[in-house]
Amino acid sequence: xxxxxxxxxxxxxxxxxxxxxxxxxxxxxxxxxxxxxxxxxxxxxx
Length: 46
What we know:
By secondary structure, this protein is mainly alpha-helical. The protein contains 3 helices and no strands.
């Protein structure tokens, strides 16, 4: 039960890669179709 995840595992990996390469959170969010907060959560999660 619960809410369906907004980002797929592939999108999370892409976000982490982009973050490591210096891409901005806003650009990553736009390309994944999610909010900047979702990108932040995906890139800081262990």
